[in-house]
Structures
1.
Amino acid sequence: MYKLWATILKDLRILLRDKVGLALMFLMPVLLVVVVTSIQNSTFELVNKNRLPILICNRDTGKLSKQFIESVDKIGMFKLQELDKSETEQHLKGRMRNKNALLGIIIPADFSTNISVKAKNVTSKALKSFGLQGDSAGRKVNLNSLDLYYQPVLQESYRVSIEGALRSALQITESRETLRQLYFAINEKPLPPALENELLHNQSTIKEIPVALGGVTNVPNASQHNVPAWTIFAMFFIIISLAGSIIREKRSGSFIRLKTLPTNYLIALISKEITYLVVTFLQAVVIFSIGLWLFPALNLPQLNMPPNVGTLFFVTLICGLSAVSYAICLGVFAQTEEQANGFGAISIVILAAIGGLMVPSFAMPGSFKPLISISPLHWCLEAYYGLFLEGGKLKDIITDLIPLFVMIIVMQVISYIGLKRKNLI
């Protein structure tokens, strides 16, 4: 026990001298989690909370275009800016190029007329289907499309949401006019506003219910997604320091000197595992603390901790052990620090990418999905998500921990075999 404790103290002193390694293990993930969470939260707020600025060039003089603009405003997604009557399409494009707005709409001059004629045609057909005498079929109408201009920076998913919202506002305007025409044709008097409001806005509500493992779930936000993800990324980046430490000891002859002493290199290896396992746990404590206390001060959503702290502690240790096992395995087989640093950093980025840390797993192309299961970072992330997002317990996430146990055992066995073949133990 004394030998192990002395070896741990030695590894701690070596680690504290490695300023670059400490920066990679603590400073880099802290900056990553703050920056990425800030950017992603701003994106969420742009779509969900903040209103998208939109320019409207209304060439129509009828009342229906005004009602359409009111419907667009009531959606809550847009911050409307109406152009003067003297301003043209070129003015709209110019103001969009100057970043005054991300969106622009041109309402054609015959907007109200065409919608009114369309409503009369629908009313006539409806009356005939009821067995009532309606007006003649009326003239055909070609509704001019609304021209929607957008900044290319808006992604397709946003544009689809925007188009759906505008279609909804346009549908409300057309339905309102059709109801008015139909009511007037039957009753020969205007549609009462109270009845109009009841007919148009008496809709069924949609209740959103997240599917949670433990029956209780935290509200998903940028912090809930990013803090666990970049904590795992930080854990696995100990590969730079840990693998480099093993290689330096191999090249300096420390292994050979250990053979002349009444000890075994397995003790040194266990010492490194314990030391860096503590480091990974400290990384998690630091990053989780930032999510809890620093994020609210930066106007970012606070990290909601899972209710089962004991399970969180256990999952963190398993994730840390998988990172340590991967780093030791690389350190055993790499010949130089340059090989370990280059391969280690690139492999972690690739495993993070296919593991769902950078792009959600469900959004990956089908050809990449079989690769997800080989990434230990994926199983770490799934275990954390089961706790943070779904409120699960240990029994709920055990299926995510089993692959990690298997990977840890495989990497430890491979490391042991490598050391035996090189006559280092």
2.
Amino acid sequence: MSSTLIETPPPADHASRDEVGRLVAIDWNSGATAADPASGRWLVAIDGSDCSLRAVAMAVRLAHGVPGAVIDLAYVHPWRVKEAAEAELPQRGWDISTASRAYLSQAGIGWRLHVRMGDAATELVALAASLGSRGIVIGSHGLTAMQSLMLGSVAYKVVHLSAVPVMIVR
């Protein structure tokens, strides 16, 4: 039996549902507000992996020296039925983001957590556009060209769909 304590997510600052009432989007804010929204916000794709934590570290470097910097963390979960989305989406997003939120807090940078349900690349690109992000930072798992072709690569899709710059971190 695992001794890992699961932290219950706090109430969301914002939640959205689709046309059938399925929970599809949840947002939390660390309480920090960007001093100058025009300075740009970085959106960092997270999935709980070491790769995504390296992407968060890169975003911290990019935000260094920007007064009141706030970094948007985004986790996208595959589609689920209504009941599963309601029960799992908030908890999974909160759990996946634990290390990233802690890293940003330790660095003294505010965060906003955006949890979405759907196709990862499509949701990340749409979120970056709606937030007015300066760019997207995403980790790469280092798949070979053949693995990416066979499995699909979220980073590859984001690069091709995004209107804002995308930084891939290995």
